[in-house]
């Protein structure tokens, strides 16, 4: 072999290896073995279930992969081989219930709703088929390629296609069954059974370089030749058995063809032909003995199952990062400018250009730019003539197109911070302290930068729109009218470091990115500040790139965010939830840290590529071609634990009040960036629904799992609402609800409340009764005490009243006695004294007869005085001593005679006739002294009111009483005196309208007689004294 030939071979292999490595570098690679999650390193089948979980069959059970963690299911028997599972297939019955795996003991294992359990129902349902369904040592189930071993298959070969339909091949004839009926058959003898694979409703066979398609309808089975289209069309390697291999899984309805180190994805195209797409090249399938392939077309993610090396996951990077070293340059990018339609010039002087032939990116250097810009690479401008404007500290430089020479330079009074090329071809220059300068292009002789406005705080952004110059500074945002220079400071952004602006075409929306303060929108004179992401990465937003699909792309120090513009506008209107989608290094960046404080921050080429500066290269991508991998799969209840004891996961759980902790772990299948998962929850009484303010965020604690911990709950029924944002706009939320029942303690049950209420009422009633009784007893005691005290007081009052009455009576008695003595004693005695003096004179004169007569008169007067005194003395004794009157029998006739005799002998004053008509034998039992007083006073009173009249006394005897009448025919007493005498009031408070005589009669009468009455006659007066039975 010549040296030239050897060199050529070595160079070709080196170039091929470099090309393969370059292709694989477009993928983010993950490798899983027993060291990081798998139970065993042999992965035979890879299938996705209805929830989005990936299922792997291994020698040690089924493995569920949620995108972050593996969960092993291996409880399918007690033998070692019960966990050995070679394949995962479909449920062939008319109504599918998930997926089915078969272990080495030929037991069916059902995969459904995120779980895998042994199932015997499928065997029973398959016993009535018109052919022998493969089982242990009977037939062979066609559901995967390549075959895992070299053991010949047993006929028949059965390929289920779902919904009760089957293809059956016996090395001679291919038959088609639908709903247990044979629908057609075709002779197809001696074909290799490992050439069959199904896609959709057709069965294909590849053999001897020919592709055959079998289609079935309700009428008959037919076949026709087919060809490969697309990337495999006409590829001669298809006929090389050593280079060709089919990967097929019936459950995933996916077929792949490997040609050497390239993998093609096969789909059904027009007329039943098969389209092919190259999805992977440069991968050594033989080295890792790949036995299973699954392709997520939307995410461009390839799952490769190795017979010896576990699981490999290759995800195509959505972004490309360009970082080519040149002399005196670094890979920390800031300012960049578009250089034509296919090139970008960075402030380091590096040009990246898309090759028009191979669409590869090539790089070159403009040394003069590299040499000139060695300080603060935040801005570089290429004007319409291709000239390059750049800066270094206070120096503004103009380099010719192509970078061959320095055309001009100027020194400004302050350090230059930003350069901006306006739509009117003006170069605007922002400075650290001196404000804004401007210079027109193309440059004319003698032109120099002139100050437009200043001084200003450090200028961080300049943008011209609709007659205004918008100026971002480290101290807020200004809007300057170009024509007048009038400056308006935007309220709400004071003391905020403005990074960049994104102004809509009509100028109605001004989007503001800031350092440390996040994203703002100025619209309709209203400033809206948007919430940050969970990790607060959006606090430092560098700039905004708007694509043609309505998305904003926002680079930060922690990755690149994508957000739907309409979502932001909706939030500005009524505060809806926001979904921020984060891209990180796994998507193709060399560094998650993008750079800001540069103008322009992003550049878009004619090819549609967007270029963003980062701390390690320029990140290029076409935003319209990127489909965000959003977490739109359902929420699954992964586990429920009560006091660390695992409960059966379901839609309901019981949690008693004396238990300490309820842990609910939720899970969702998601293979993207974990930061894009946003769970929230709300706990409400059953029957009520949460308002937006009730939702609380849940931190994703591990992988794709979210944990909710509830420590205590009061009795009752609750509903735990869990939701997850599914992505942008109308994708909305996924929800999951769990009913939580908290049984009451025995003392919180309705029967206890009822019993307690009854007891409470009874106790209350008893307490009230006892209280009432006690109050009554106390009241009775008090009443007794009051009665005793009242009786004592009454007795005292009576005693006092009696004492008072006695005193008053005595005083009145004294008064009356004094008046009587003055009238009945003193006056007569005075008269007696005067008459005695006259008598003496008569004696001296010898008028003895007259003197004797006067002497008789004096005697009679003295007798009357004596009788009056005796009466008054008896009355006084009665009143003062209040003794019980002593009764005795008295002759009423004699008593009357004595009294009349006293008044009849002295008739010169009142010459009246006294008639005693009382029988001489009339006797009464009474108090004689008191009766004498009464009779004396009555006759005395009659004598006073009668002149020359008759005063008589008579009686009327009745069986039970005796009435004594004392009657006169004088002028009579007054009606007032009659009314007073007849009244029953014996009170002495009022003075009587008479002398003491009638007073004594009225007071003494009750002690002497049964009754006494006074009557007025015409003329005269009659007094009637009624005595008791005599």
TrEMBL record:
<dbReference type="InterPro" id="IPR005467">
    <property type="entry name" value="His_kinase_dom"/>
</dbReference>
<dbReference type="InterPro" id="IPR011110">
    <property type="entry name" value="Reg_prop"/>
</dbReference>
<dbReference type="Pfam" id="PF07494">
    <property type="entry name" value="Reg_prop"/>
</dbReference>
<dbReference type="InterPro" id="IPR013783">
    <property type="entry name" value="Ig-like_fold"/>
</dbReference>
<dbReference type="InterPro" id="IPR003594">
    <property type="entry name" value="HATPase_dom"/>
</dbReference>
<dbReference type="InterPro" id="IPR003661">
    <property type="entry name" value="HisK_dim/P_dom"/>
</dbReference>
<dbReference type="InterPro" id="IPR015943">
    <property type="entry name" value="WD40/YVTN_repeat-like_dom_sf"/>
</dbReference>
<dbReference type="InterPro" id="IPR036097">
    <property type="entry name" value="HisK_dim/P_sf"/>
</dbReference>
<keyword id="KW-0472">Membrane</keyword>
<protein>
    <recommendedName>
        <fullName>histidine kinase</fullName>
        <ecNumber>2.7.13.3</ecNumber>
    </recommendedName>
</protein>
<feature type="transmembrane region" description="Helical">
    <location>
        <begin position="750"/>
        <end position="768"/>
    </location>
</feature>
<keyword id="KW-0597">Phosphoprotein</keyword>
<keyword id="KW-0812">Transmembrane</keyword>
<dbReference type="Pfam" id="PF02518">
    <property type="entry name" value="HATPase_c"/>
</dbReference>
<feature type="domain" description="Histidine kinase">
    <location>
        <begin position="820"/>
        <end position="1030"/>
    </location>
</feature>
<dbReference type="InterPro" id="IPR036890">
    <property type="entry name" value="HATPase_C_sf"/>
</dbReference>
<keyword id="KW-1133">Transmembrane helix</keyword>
<dbReference type="GO" id="GO:0000155">
    <property type="term" value="F:phosphorelay sensor kinase activity"/>
</dbReference>
């Amino acid at each position: 072999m010549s040296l030239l030939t050897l060199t050529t071979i070595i160079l070709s292999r080196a170039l091929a290896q470099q090309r393969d490595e370059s292709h694989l570098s477009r993928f983010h690679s993950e490798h899983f073995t027993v060291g990081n999650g798998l139970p065993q390193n042999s992965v035979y089948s890879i299938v996705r279930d209805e929830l989005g979980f990936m299922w792997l069959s291994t020698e040690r059970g089924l493995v569920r992969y949620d995108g972050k963690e593996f969960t092993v299911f291996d409880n399918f028997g007690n033998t070692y081989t019960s966990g050995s599972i070679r394949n995962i297939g479909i449920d062939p019955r008319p109504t599918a219930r998930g997926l089915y795996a078969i272990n080495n003991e030929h037991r069916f294992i059902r995969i459904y709703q995120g779980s895998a359990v042994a199932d015997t129902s499928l065997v029973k349902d398959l016993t009535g088929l018109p052919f022998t369904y493969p089982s242990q040592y009977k037939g062979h189930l066609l559901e995967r390629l390549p075959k895992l071993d070299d053991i010949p298959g047993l006929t028949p070969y059965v390929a289920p296609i779902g919904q009760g339909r089957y293809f059956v091949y016996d090395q001679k004839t291919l038959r088609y069954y639908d709903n247990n009926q044979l629908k057609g058959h075709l002779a197809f003898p001696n074909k290799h059974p490992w050439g069959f694979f199904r896609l959709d409703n057709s069965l294909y066979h590849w053999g001897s370089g020919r592709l055959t398609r079998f289609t079935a309808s309700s009428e008959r089975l037919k076949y026709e030749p087919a060809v490969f289209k697309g990337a495999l069309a006409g590829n001669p390697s298809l006929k090389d058995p050593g280079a060709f291999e089919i990967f097929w899984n019936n459950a995933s309805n996916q077929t792949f063809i490997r040609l050497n180190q390239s993998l093609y994805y096969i789909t059904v195209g027009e007329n039943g032909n098969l389209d092919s797409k190259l999805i992977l090249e440069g991968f050594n399938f033989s080295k890792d003995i790949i036995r299973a392939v699954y392709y997520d077309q939307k995410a461009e993610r390839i799952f490769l199952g190795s017979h010896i090396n576990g699981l490999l996951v290759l995800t195509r990077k959505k972004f490309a990062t360009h970082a080519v070293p040149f002399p005196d340059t670094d890979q920390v990018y800031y300012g960049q400018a578009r250089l034509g339609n296919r090139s970008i010039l960075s402030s380091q002087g590096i040009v990246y250009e898309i090759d028009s032939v191979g669409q590869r990116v090539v790089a070159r250097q403009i040394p003069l730019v590299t040499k000139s810009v060695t300080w603060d690479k935040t801005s570089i401008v290429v004007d319409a003539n291709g000239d390059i404007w750049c800066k270094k500290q206070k120096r503004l430089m103009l380099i010719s197109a192509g970078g061959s020479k320095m055309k001009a330079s100027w020194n400004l009074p302050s350090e230059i911070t930003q350069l901006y090329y306006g739509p009117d071809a003006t170069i605007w220059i922002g400075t650290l302290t001196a404000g804004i300068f401007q210079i027109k292009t193309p440059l004319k002789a003698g032109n120099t930068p002139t100050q437009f406005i200043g001084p200003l705080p450090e200028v961080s952004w300049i943008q011209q729109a609709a007659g205004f110059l918008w100026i971002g500074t480290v101290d807020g945002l200004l809007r300057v009218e170009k024509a007048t220079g009038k400056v308006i400071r935007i309220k709400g952004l004071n003391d905020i470091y403005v990074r960049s602006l994104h102004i809509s075409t009509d100028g109605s929306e001004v989007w503001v990115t800031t350092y440390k303060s996040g994203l703002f929108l100025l619209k309709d004179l209203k400033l809206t500040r948007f919430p940050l992401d969970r990790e607060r990465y959006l606090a430092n937003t560098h700039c905004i790139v708007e694509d043609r699909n309505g998305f904003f792309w926002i680079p930060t120090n922690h990755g690149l965010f994508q957000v739907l513009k309409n979502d932001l506008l909706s939030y500005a209107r009524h505060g809806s939830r926001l979904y921020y989608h984060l891209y990180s290094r796994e998507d193709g960046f060399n560094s998650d840290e993008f750079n800001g404080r540069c103008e322009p921050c992003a550049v878009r080429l004619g090819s549609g590529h967007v270029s963003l500066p980062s701390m390690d290269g320029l990140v290029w991508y076409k935003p319209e071609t990127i489909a965000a991998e959003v977490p739109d799969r359902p929420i699954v209840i992964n586990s429920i634990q009560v006091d660390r004891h695992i409960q059966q996961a379901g839609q309901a759980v019981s949690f008693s009040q004396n238990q300490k902790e309820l842990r609910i772990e939720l899970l969702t299948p998601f293979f993207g960036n974990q930061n894009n998962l946003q769970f929230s929850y709300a706990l409400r009484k059953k029957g009520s629904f949460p308002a937006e303010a009730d939702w609380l965020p849940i931190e994703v604690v591990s992988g794709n799992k979210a944990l909710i911990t509830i420590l205590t709950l009061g009795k009752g029924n609750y509903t735990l609402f869990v939701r997850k944002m599914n992505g942008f706009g109308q994708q909305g939320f996924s929800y999951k609800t769990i009913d939580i029942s908290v049984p009451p303690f025995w003392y919180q049950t309705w029967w206890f409340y009822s019993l307690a209420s009854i007891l409470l009422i009874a106790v209350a009633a008893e307490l009230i009764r006892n209280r009432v009784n006690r109050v009554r007893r106390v009241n009775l005691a008090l009443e007794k005490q009051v009665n005793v005290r009242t009786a004592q007081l009454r007795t005292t009052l009576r005693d006092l009243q009696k004492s008072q009455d006695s005193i008053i009576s005595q005083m009145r008695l004294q008064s009356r006695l004094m008046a009587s003595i003055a009238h009945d004693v003193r006056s007569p005695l005075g008269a007696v004294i005067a008459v005695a003096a006259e008598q003496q004179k008569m004696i001296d004169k010898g008028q003895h007869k007259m003197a004797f007569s006067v002497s008789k008169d004096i005697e009679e007067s003295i007798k009357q005085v004596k009788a009056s005194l005796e009466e008054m003395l008896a009355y006084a004794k009665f009143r003062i001593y209040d003794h019980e009157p002593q009764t005795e029998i008295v002759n009423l006739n004699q008593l009357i005679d004595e009294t009349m005799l006293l008044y009849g002998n002295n008739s010169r004053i009142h010459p009246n006739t006294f008639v005693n008509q009382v029988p001489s034998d009339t006797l009464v039992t009474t108090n004689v002294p008191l009766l004498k007083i009464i009779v004396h006073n009555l006759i005395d009173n009659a004598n006073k009111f009668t002149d020359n009249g008759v005063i008589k006394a008579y009686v009327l005897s009745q069986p039970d009483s005796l009435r004594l009448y004392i009657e006169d025919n004088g002028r009579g007493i007054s009606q007032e005196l009659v009314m007073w005498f007849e009244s029953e009031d014996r009170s002495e408070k009022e003075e009587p309208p008479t002398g003491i005589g009638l007073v004594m009669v009225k007071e003494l009468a009750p002690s002497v007689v049964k009754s006494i009455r006074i009557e007025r006659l015409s003329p005269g007066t009659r007094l009637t004294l009624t005595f008791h039975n005599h």
